[in-house]
Specification:
Bound molecules: iron/sulfur cluster
CATH topology of the largest domain in chain A: Rossmann fold
Structural class of chain A: alpha/beta
Number of helices of chain A: 15
Order of helices and strands of chain B: HHHHHHHHHH
Structural class of chain B: mainly alpha
Largest sheet of chain A: 4 strands, parallel
Number of helices of chain B: 10
CATH class of the largest domain in chain B: Mainly Alpha
Largest sheet of chain B: none
Oligomer: heterodimer
CATH topology of the largest domain in chain B: Fumarate Reductase Iron-sulfur Protein, Chain B, domain 2
CATH superfamily of the largest domain in chain B: Alpha-helical ferredoxin
CATH architecture of the largest domain in chain B: Orthogonal Bundle
Number of strands of chain B: 0
Largest interface: A-B, 64 and 61 residues
Chain lengths: 301, 163
Protein backbone atom coordinates (compact mmCIF):
# COMPACT_ATOMS: atom_id res chain seq x y z
CA UNK A 1 0.00 0.00 0.00
CA UNK A 2 1.28 3.42 -0.98
CA UNK A 3 0.75 6.45 1.27
CA UNK A 4 1.64 10.12 1.38
CA UNK A 5 3.73 9.99 4.54
CA UNK A 6 3.20 12.78 7.04
CA UNK A 7 5.77 12.50 9.86
CA UNK A 8 4.89 15.97 11.20
CA UNK A 9 7.25 18.71 12.39
CA UNK A 10 7.92 17.23 15.83
CA UNK A 11 8.95 13.83 14.57
CA UNK A 12 10.81 15.11 11.51
CA UNK A 13 12.89 17.71 13.28
CA UNK A 14 13.05 16.65 16.91
CA UNK A 15 12.83 12.84 16.81
CA UNK A 16 14.22 11.89 13.39
CA UNK A 17 15.39 8.56 14.82
CA UNK A 18 11.76 7.61 15.48
CA UNK A 19 10.88 8.53 11.91
CA UNK A 20 13.74 6.31 10.80
CA UNK A 21 12.21 3.36 12.67
CA UNK A 22 8.97 3.83 10.72
CA UNK A 23 10.84 3.97 7.42
CA UNK A 24 12.75 0.81 8.39
CA UNK A 25 9.60 -1.09 9.34
CA UNK A 26 7.39 0.02 6.43
CA UNK A 27 8.79 -2.20 3.63
CA UNK A 28 8.38 -5.29 5.82
CA UNK A 29 4.63 -4.71 5.67
CA UNK A 30 4.51 -3.62 2.04
CA UNK A 31 3.96 0.00 2.99
CA UNK A 32 5.43 2.46 0.52
CA UNK A 33 6.01 5.99 1.81
CA UNK A 34 5.86 8.98 -0.54
CA UNK A 35 7.18 12.40 0.57
CA UNK A 36 5.25 15.48 -0.50
CA UNK A 37 5.92 19.21 0.14
CA UNK A 38 3.59 19.46 3.14
CA UNK A 39 3.35 22.34 5.57
CA UNK A 40 2.85 21.89 9.31
CA UNK A 41 -0.41 19.92 9.71
CA UNK A 42 -1.11 22.60 11.30
CA UNK A 43 -0.93 22.01 15.00
CA UNK A 44 -4.34 22.68 16.63
CA UNK A 45 -2.99 23.96 19.93
CA UNK A 46 -1.06 26.70 18.25
CA UNK A 47 -2.39 27.44 14.78
CA UNK A 48 -6.05 26.63 15.40
CA UNK A 49 -5.99 28.60 18.64
CA UNK A 50 -4.51 31.53 16.74
CA UNK A 51 -6.91 31.37 13.80
CA UNK A 52 -9.46 28.69 13.06
CA UNK A 53 -9.64 29.81 9.41
CA UNK A 54 -5.89 29.53 8.89
CA UNK A 55 -5.83 26.12 10.54
CA UNK A 56 -8.60 24.80 8.29
CA UNK A 57 -7.11 26.21 5.08
CA UNK A 58 -3.59 24.87 5.75
CA UNK A 59 -4.92 21.43 6.67
CA UNK A 60 -7.05 21.44 3.50
CA UNK A 61 -3.99 22.38 1.45
CA UNK A 62 -2.07 19.38 2.79
CA UNK A 63 -4.98 17.06 2.12
CA UNK A 64 -5.44 18.53 -1.36
CA UNK A 65 -1.76 17.84 -2.05
CA UNK A 66 -2.29 14.14 -1.24
CA UNK A 67 -5.42 14.15 -3.39
CA UNK A 68 -3.40 15.47 -6.33
CA UNK A 69 -1.10 12.46 -6.02
CA UNK A 70 -4.13 10.16 -5.56
CA UNK A 71 -2.84 8.99 -2.21
CA UNK A 72 -4.21 8.52 1.29
CA UNK A 73 -2.27 10.19 4.08
CA UNK A 74 -0.35 8.18 6.67
CA UNK A 75 0.22 10.05 9.92
CA UNK A 76 2.66 9.15 12.69
CA UNK A 77 1.82 11.82 15.24
CA UNK A 78 -1.51 11.82 17.06
CA UNK A 79 -1.58 15.64 17.03
CA UNK A 80 -1.31 15.76 13.24
CA UNK A 81 -3.82 12.95 12.97
CA UNK A 82 -6.44 14.70 15.10
CA UNK A 83 -5.83 17.95 13.24
CA UNK A 84 -6.38 16.35 9.81
CA UNK A 85 -9.36 14.28 10.89
CA UNK A 86 -11.08 17.20 12.60
CA UNK A 87 -10.41 19.50 9.64
CA UNK A 88 -11.65 16.85 7.23
CA UNK A 89 -14.81 16.42 9.29
CA UNK A 90 -15.34 20.18 9.39
CA UNK A 91 -14.89 20.47 5.61
CA UNK A 92 -16.95 17.41 4.71
CA UNK A 93 -19.90 18.37 6.92
CA UNK A 94 -19.94 22.15 6.34
CA UNK A 95 -20.22 22.92 2.62
CA UNK A 96 -20.01 26.67 3.34
CA UNK A 97 -16.65 26.26 5.06
CA UNK A 98 -15.42 23.97 2.31
CA UNK A 99 -16.36 26.57 -0.31
CA UNK A 100 -14.60 29.32 1.61
CA UNK A 101 -11.47 27.19 1.94
CA UNK A 102 -11.52 26.25 -1.73
CA UNK A 103 -11.71 29.91 -2.63
CA UNK A 104 -8.42 30.36 -0.76
CA UNK A 105 -6.88 27.22 -2.25
CA UNK A 106 -7.96 28.31 -5.73
CA UNK A 107 -5.50 31.21 -5.38
CA UNK A 108 -2.64 28.71 -5.18
CA UNK A 109 -4.05 26.39 -7.83
CA UNK A 110 -5.39 23.73 -5.49
CA UNK A 111 -8.72 22.25 -4.50
CA UNK A 112 -9.93 20.13 -1.60
CA UNK A 113 -12.54 17.52 -2.51
CA UNK A 114 -12.22 15.07 0.39
CA UNK A 115 -11.30 11.88 -1.46
CA UNK A 116 -8.08 11.11 0.40
CA UNK A 117 -8.43 9.20 3.66
CA UNK A 118 -6.18 9.86 6.65
CA UNK A 119 -4.82 6.96 8.67
CA UNK A 120 -2.53 6.82 11.66
CA UNK A 121 0.27 4.23 11.73
CA UNK A 122 -1.57 2.61 14.66
CA UNK A 123 -4.62 1.98 12.46
CA UNK A 124 -2.61 0.57 9.57
CA UNK A 125 -0.83 -1.82 11.92
CA UNK A 126 -3.86 -2.92 13.93
CA UNK A 127 -6.81 -2.63 11.56
CA UNK A 128 -5.22 -3.27 8.15
CA UNK A 129 -2.28 -5.56 8.87
CA UNK A 130 -3.49 -7.01 12.14
CA UNK A 131 -1.74 -8.31 15.28
CA UNK A 132 -1.70 -11.92 13.97
CA UNK A 133 0.22 -10.98 10.83
CA UNK A 134 2.68 -8.98 12.95
CA UNK A 135 3.12 -11.90 15.37
CA UNK A 136 4.14 -14.14 12.48
CA UNK A 137 7.07 -11.86 11.70
CA UNK A 138 8.43 -11.55 15.24
CA UNK A 139 11.86 -13.14 15.58
CA UNK A 140 12.81 -12.00 19.06
CA UNK A 141 10.03 -11.63 21.58
CA UNK A 142 10.83 -8.75 23.92
CA UNK A 143 10.25 -9.83 27.47
CA UNK A 144 9.17 -6.51 28.88
CA UNK A 145 6.34 -5.20 31.03
CA UNK A 146 5.13 -1.85 29.73
CA UNK A 147 2.44 0.76 30.05
CA UNK A 148 0.95 1.99 26.79
CA UNK A 149 -0.18 5.59 26.34
CA UNK A 150 -2.40 6.00 23.28
CA UNK A 151 -2.50 9.77 23.71
CA UNK A 152 -5.42 12.18 23.76
CA UNK A 153 -5.56 12.70 20.02
CA UNK A 154 -5.44 9.02 19.16
CA UNK A 155 -8.63 8.59 21.20
CA UNK A 156 -10.54 11.87 21.08
CA UNK A 157 -12.77 13.13 19.55
CA UNK A 158 -13.89 9.51 19.55
CA UNK A 159 -16.81 9.93 17.12
CA UNK A 160 -14.55 11.48 14.47
CA UNK A 161 -11.38 9.44 14.96
CA UNK A 162 -13.00 6.05 15.63
CA UNK A 163 -9.69 4.39 16.43
CA UNK A 164 -10.44 2.73 19.75
CA UNK A 165 -12.69 2.96 22.80
CA UNK A 166 -11.74 6.30 24.27
CA UNK A 167 -12.34 5.33 27.90
CA UNK A 168 -10.94 1.80 27.73
CA UNK A 169 -8.60 1.43 24.75
CA UNK A 170 -7.34 -2.11 24.05
CA UNK A 171 -5.83 -2.08 20.57
CA UNK A 172 -2.46 -0.57 21.49
CA UNK A 173 -2.05 -3.23 24.20
CA UNK A 174 -2.86 -5.86 21.57
CA UNK A 175 -0.10 -4.49 19.35
CA UNK A 176 2.55 -4.69 22.08
CA UNK A 177 1.39 -8.15 23.21
CA UNK A 178 2.29 -9.73 19.88
CA UNK A 179 5.87 -8.54 20.40
CA UNK A 180 6.06 -10.72 23.51
CA UNK A 181 5.50 -7.71 25.75
CA UNK A 182 3.13 -7.67 28.70
CA UNK A 183 0.91 -4.55 28.69
CA UNK A 184 -0.04 -3.40 32.18
CA UNK A 185 -3.36 -1.86 33.13
CA UNK A 186 -2.97 1.38 35.05
CA UNK A 187 -5.24 3.94 36.60
CA UNK A 188 -4.91 7.05 34.44
CA UNK A 189 -4.45 5.27 31.12
CA UNK A 190 -6.47 7.72 29.04
CA UNK A 191 -5.26 10.85 30.83
CA UNK A 192 -3.37 13.58 29.01
CA UNK A 193 0.44 13.85 29.41
CA UNK A 194 0.17 17.62 29.85
CA UNK A 195 2.02 18.64 26.73
CA UNK A 196 -0.89 20.70 25.38
CA UNK A 197 -0.55 23.41 27.97
CA UNK A 198 3.25 23.49 28.25
CA UNK A 199 3.53 26.86 26.54
CA UNK A 200 0.71 28.59 28.36
CA UNK A 201 0.86 27.07 31.83
CA UNK A 202 4.19 25.38 32.38
CA UNK A 203 3.58 24.64 36.03
CA UNK A 204 0.24 22.92 35.46
CA UNK A 205 1.61 21.02 32.49
CA UNK A 206 4.38 19.40 34.53
CA UNK A 207 2.02 18.77 37.43
CA UNK A 208 -0.22 16.85 35.00
CA UNK A 209 2.80 14.87 33.82
CA UNK A 210 3.66 14.09 37.46
CA UNK A 211 0.12 12.75 38.03
CA UNK A 212 0.24 10.68 34.87
CA UNK A 213 3.66 9.20 35.59
CA UNK A 214 2.78 8.50 39.23
CA UNK A 215 -0.08 6.40 37.94
CA UNK A 216 2.24 4.60 35.51
CA UNK A 217 4.84 3.94 38.17
CA UNK A 218 2.32 2.27 40.46
CA UNK A 219 2.41 -0.84 38.25
CA UNK A 220 6.21 -0.82 38.02
CA UNK A 221 6.70 -0.96 34.24
CA UNK A 222 10.02 -1.43 32.40
CA UNK A 223 9.04 1.27 29.91
CA UNK A 224 6.26 3.41 28.49
CA UNK A 225 5.26 2.92 24.86
CA UNK A 226 3.71 5.72 22.81
CA UNK A 227 2.44 6.39 19.29
CA UNK A 228 3.11 10.13 19.19
CA UNK A 229 6.34 12.16 19.10
CA UNK A 230 4.92 14.89 21.34
CA UNK A 231 3.96 12.37 24.01
CA UNK A 232 7.42 10.80 23.59
CA UNK A 233 9.17 14.10 24.30
CA UNK A 234 6.73 14.93 27.07
CA UNK A 235 7.55 11.72 28.94
CA UNK A 236 11.22 11.33 28.10
CA UNK A 237 12.44 14.89 28.60
CA UNK A 238 9.61 16.02 30.85
CA UNK A 239 10.32 13.53 33.62
CA UNK A 240 13.61 15.25 34.40
CA UNK A 241 11.84 18.56 34.90
CA UNK A 242 9.16 16.83 36.99
CA UNK A 243 11.89 15.29 39.13
CA UNK A 244 13.57 18.67 39.62
CA UNK A 245 10.33 20.48 40.32
CA UNK A 246 8.55 17.99 42.54
CA UNK A 247 11.40 15.91 43.99
CA UNK A 248 10.23 12.73 42.29
CA UNK A 249 12.64 10.13 40.90
CA UNK A 250 11.13 8.98 37.62
CA UNK A 251 13.49 7.17 35.31
CA UNK A 252 11.15 5.60 32.82
CA UNK A 253 12.43 4.67 29.36
CA UNK A 254 10.10 5.64 26.51
CA UNK A 255 9.68 3.96 23.13
CA UNK A 256 7.64 4.74 20.06
CA UNK A 257 5.89 1.53 19.00
CA UNK A 258 7.69 1.02 15.68
CA UNK A 259 11.06 1.09 17.46
CA UNK A 260 10.08 -1.98 19.49
CA UNK A 261 8.51 -3.53 16.42
CA UNK A 262 11.74 -3.12 14.46
CA UNK A 263 13.80 -4.65 17.28
CA UNK A 264 11.42 -7.60 17.63
CA UNK A 265 11.60 -8.17 13.87
CA UNK A 266 15.42 -7.95 14.06
CA UNK A 267 15.48 -5.31 11.36
CA UNK A 268 19.06 -4.07 10.94
CA UNK A 269 19.91 -0.43 11.54
CA UNK A 270 18.30 -0.04 14.96
CA UNK A 271 21.49 0.42 17.02
CA UNK A 272 21.85 4.20 16.52
CA UNK A 273 18.12 4.62 17.03
CA UNK A 274 18.04 2.92 20.41
CA UNK A 275 21.23 4.79 21.32
CA UNK A 276 19.53 8.12 20.69
CA UNK A 277 17.26 7.62 23.70
CA UNK A 278 18.01 9.89 26.63
CA UNK A 279 16.64 7.58 29.30
CA UNK A 280 18.45 4.33 28.63
CA UNK A 281 16.12 1.37 28.61
CA UNK A 282 16.28 -2.42 28.73
CA UNK A 283 16.03 -2.89 24.97
CA UNK A 284 19.15 -3.44 22.92
CA UNK A 285 19.06 -3.54 19.17
CA UNK A 286 20.70 -6.37 17.36
CA UNK A 287 23.65 -5.56 15.18
CA UNK A 288 24.41 -8.70 13.22
CA UNK A 289 28.02 -9.73 13.62
CA UNK A 290 28.67 -7.56 16.65
CA UNK A 291 29.25 -9.79 19.68
CA UNK A 292 27.12 -8.97 22.66
CA UNK A 293 24.60 -6.94 20.68
CA UNK A 294 22.36 -9.86 19.94
CA UNK A 295 20.49 -10.22 23.20
CA UNK A 296 16.95 -8.93 23.04
CA UNK A 297 16.62 -7.72 26.58
CA UNK A 298 19.27 -6.99 29.15
CA UNK A 299 18.71 -7.85 32.77
CA UNK A 300 16.93 -4.89 34.26
CA UNK A 301 18.18 -2.91 37.20
CA UNK B 1 -9.53 41.22 9.20
CA UNK B 2 -11.33 38.09 8.05
CA UNK B 3 -10.98 36.40 11.38
CA UNK B 4 -13.17 38.43 13.67
CA UNK B 5 -16.19 36.53 14.87
CA UNK B 6 -19.47 38.07 13.81
CA UNK B 7 -22.22 38.62 16.41
CA UNK B 8 -24.16 35.79 14.71
CA UNK B 9 -21.22 33.44 15.13
CA UNK B 10 -20.86 34.36 18.79
CA UNK B 11 -24.60 33.86 19.26
CA UNK B 12 -24.48 30.42 17.66
CA UNK B 13 -21.56 29.40 19.89
CA UNK B 14 -23.47 30.50 22.98
CA UNK B 15 -26.56 28.65 21.72
CA UNK B 16 -24.50 25.49 21.37
CA UNK B 17 -23.44 25.50 25.03
CA UNK B 18 -26.88 26.37 26.43
CA UNK B 19 -27.81 22.69 27.13
CA UNK B 20 -25.18 22.71 29.91
CA UNK B 21 -26.86 21.99 33.26
CA UNK B 22 -23.70 22.50 35.35
CA UNK B 23 -23.19 18.85 36.33
CA UNK B 24 -19.43 19.33 36.59
CA UNK B 25 -18.40 16.15 34.77
CA UNK B 26 -16.21 18.25 32.47
CA UNK B 27 -14.32 19.73 35.42
CA UNK B 28 -13.87 16.39 37.14
CA UNK B 29 -12.47 14.97 33.87
CA UNK B 30 -10.11 17.87 33.23
CA UNK B 31 -6.39 17.22 33.86
CA UNK B 32 -5.72 20.93 34.29
CA UNK B 33 -8.46 21.31 36.90
CA UNK B 34 -6.96 18.31 38.71
CA UNK B 35 -3.70 20.17 39.35
CA UNK B 36 -4.87 23.80 39.11
CA UNK B 37 -8.45 24.01 40.46
CA UNK B 38 -8.64 27.73 39.65
CA UNK B 39 -9.12 26.64 36.03
CA UNK B 40 -12.58 25.17 35.71
CA UNK B 41 -14.32 24.49 32.38
CA UNK B 42 -17.72 24.33 34.10
CA UNK B 43 -17.31 27.86 35.45
CA UNK B 44 -16.11 29.10 32.08
CA UNK B 45 -19.32 27.87 30.46
CA UNK B 46 -21.52 29.21 33.22
CA UNK B 47 -19.97 32.66 32.88
CA UNK B 48 -20.61 32.79 29.13
CA UNK B 49 -24.18 31.48 29.33
CA UNK B 50 -25.02 33.89 32.15
CA UNK B 51 -23.47 37.02 30.65
CA UNK B 52 -24.12 36.26 26.97
CA UNK B 53 -20.66 37.48 26.02
CA UNK B 54 -17.34 35.74 25.47
CA UNK B 55 -14.81 37.66 27.51
CA UNK B 56 -11.47 35.79 27.53
CA UNK B 57 -9.69 36.18 30.89
CA UNK B 58 -6.46 34.39 29.98
CA UNK B 59 -7.29 31.05 31.61
CA UNK B 60 -8.48 29.73 28.24
CA UNK B 61 -4.84 29.22 27.27
CA UNK B 62 -4.33 26.75 30.12
CA UNK B 63 -6.61 24.25 28.39
CA UNK B 64 -4.45 21.38 27.17
CA UNK B 65 -6.95 20.53 24.39
CA UNK B 66 -7.15 16.94 25.63
CA UNK B 67 -10.87 16.79 24.71
CA UNK B 68 -11.87 14.71 27.74
CA UNK B 69 -14.46 17.30 28.84
CA UNK B 70 -16.37 17.19 25.61
CA UNK B 71 -16.05 13.41 25.38
CA UNK B 72 -17.79 12.96 28.72
CA UNK B 73 -20.32 15.79 28.68
CA UNK B 74 -23.75 14.17 29.01
CA UNK B 75 -25.35 17.06 27.11
CA UNK B 76 -23.06 16.87 24.10
CA UNK B 77 -21.64 20.31 24.68
CA UNK B 78 -18.59 20.77 22.48
CA UNK B 79 -16.15 22.48 24.79
CA UNK B 80 -13.35 22.11 22.27
CA UNK B 81 -15.28 24.20 19.80
CA UNK B 82 -16.00 26.77 22.46
CA UNK B 83 -12.42 26.88 23.67
CA UNK B 84 -11.06 27.38 20.16
CA UNK B 85 -13.46 30.30 19.73
CA UNK B 86 -12.40 31.79 23.08
CA UNK B 87 -8.72 31.43 22.16
CA UNK B 88 -9.33 33.00 18.73
CA UNK B 89 -11.02 36.01 20.36
CA UNK B 90 -8.22 36.24 22.89
CA UNK B 91 -5.69 36.20 20.03
CA UNK B 92 -7.50 39.06 18.30
CA UNK B 93 -7.26 41.08 21.50
CA UNK B 94 -3.49 40.64 21.49
CA UNK B 95 -3.43 38.11 24.31
CA UNK B 96 -1.96 35.03 22.63
CA UNK B 97 0.62 33.47 24.95
CA UNK B 98 4.31 33.98 24.50
CA UNK B 99 5.72 31.76 21.79
CA UNK B 100 2.53 31.37 19.79
CA UNK B 101 3.10 34.24 17.32
CA UNK B 102 6.64 32.88 16.83
CA UNK B 103 5.16 29.56 15.73
CA UNK B 104 2.92 31.28 13.18
CA UNK B 105 5.94 33.24 12.02
CA UNK B 106 7.92 30.02 11.63
CA UNK B 107 5.17 28.54 9.48
CA UNK B 108 5.00 31.74 7.42
CA UNK B 109 8.72 31.64 6.68
CA UNK B 110 9.40 27.88 6.42
CA UNK B 111 6.01 26.18 6.17
CA UNK B 112 6.83 24.12 9.25
CA UNK B 113 7.50 24.49 12.96
CA UNK B 114 11.26 24.27 13.09
CA UNK B 115 13.71 26.90 14.20
CA UNK B 116 16.68 26.55 11.90
CA UNK B 117 18.05 24.76 8.88
CA UNK B 118 20.51 22.84 11.05
CA UNK B 119 17.64 20.55 11.87
CA UNK B 120 18.08 18.86 8.52
CA UNK B 121 21.55 17.92 9.78
CA UNK B 122 19.93 15.85 12.51
CA UNK B 123 17.97 14.03 9.83
CA UNK B 124 21.16 13.36 7.86
CA UNK B 125 22.62 11.68 10.92
CA UNK B 126 19.97 8.99 10.57
CA UNK B 127 20.27 8.88 6.82
CA UNK B 128 16.88 10.48 6.31
CA UNK B 129 16.04 12.55 3.23
CA UNK B 130 15.52 16.29 3.76
CA UNK B 131 11.77 16.82 3.69
CA UNK B 132 10.21 18.56 0.74
CA UNK B 133 9.00 22.03 1.64
CA UNK B 134 6.16 24.06 0.16
CA UNK B 135 6.99 27.29 -1.64
CA UNK B 136 7.06 30.33 0.65
CA UNK B 137 4.71 32.10 -1.75
CA UNK B 138 1.82 29.67 -1.43
CA UNK B 139 2.09 29.47 2.36
CA UNK B 140 2.08 33.27 2.60
CA UNK B 141 -0.94 33.44 0.33
CA UNK B 142 -2.95 31.06 2.53
CA UNK B 143 -1.97 32.91 5.68
CA UNK B 144 -2.80 36.27 4.12
CA UNK B 145 -6.19 35.22 2.83
CA UNK B 146 -7.20 33.74 6.17
CA UNK B 147 -6.16 36.72 8.27
CA UNK B 148 -3.11 35.23 9.98
CA UNK B 149 -0.63 37.74 8.59
CA UNK B 150 -2.79 40.65 9.82
CA UNK B 151 -2.97 39.05 13.25
CA UNK B 152 0.77 38.49 13.21
CA UNK B 153 1.33 42.19 12.49
CA UNK B 154 -0.53 42.99 15.66
CA UNK B 155 2.06 41.00 17.59
CA UNK B 156 5.01 42.18 15.53
CA UNK B 157 4.17 45.75 16.46
CA UNK B 158 4.75 44.50 19.99
CA UNK B 159 8.14 43.16 18.91
CA UNK B 160 7.24 39.53 18.50
CA UNK B 161 8.34 37.21 15.73
CA UNK B 162 9.99 39.90 13.61
CA UNK B 163 13.32 39.28 11.96
S1 LIG C 1 -20.13 18.18 31.48
FE1 LIG C 1 -21.44 19.29 30.01
S2 LIG C 1 -23.38 19.65 31.08
FE2 LIG C 1 -21.88 19.04 32.64
S3 LIG C 1 -21.09 21.02 33.41
FE3 LIG C 1 -19.71 20.36 31.78
S4 LIG C 1 -20.49 21.35 29.90
FE4 LIG C 1 -22.13 21.45 31.45
S1 LIG D 1 -9.95 19.98 26.67
FE1 LIG D 1 -9.16 21.56 28.05
S2 LIG D 1 -10.88 22.08 29.41
FE2 LIG D 1 -11.38 20.13 28.41
S3 LIG D 1 -10.69 18.55 29.85
FE3 LIG D 1 -9.00 18.90 28.42
S4 LIG D 1 -7.71 20.47 29.38
FE4 LIG D 1 -9.71 20.48 30.45
Amino acid sequence: MKYAFFPGCTMAYRLPFVEKSIRLVAPHFNIELVDLPFTCCPEPNSVRSFSDETWLALAARNLALAEKSKLDVLTACTGCHESFMTAKHELDTHPDRKDAVNEVLGEIGMEYTGVSAVKHMHQVLFDDIGPEAIAEKVKRPLELRVVTHSGCHMLRPEAILQIDDCEAPVKFDGLVEVLGIEPLEYMDKTMCCGTGTRRANREASFAILREKMTSMKMVNPDAAVVFCPSCFISFESGQRIVNKTFGTDFKLPVYYYTELLAVALEIPGMVPIIKAHRVKGPVTASAPGVPGEGRPVEAKN
Amino acid sequence: MTDTKTPEEIESIIESIRPCFQCGICASSCPVFRVAPEINPRHAIDEIVKTGVIEPDGTEWSCAYCLMCEQRCPMGVSLAHLLVAVKNISTEKGNAPEGLPEIIHSILSTGVIAQDSDLDKMREKYDLPPLKRPTAKEVRKVLELTGATDLLELYQSKGVGSD
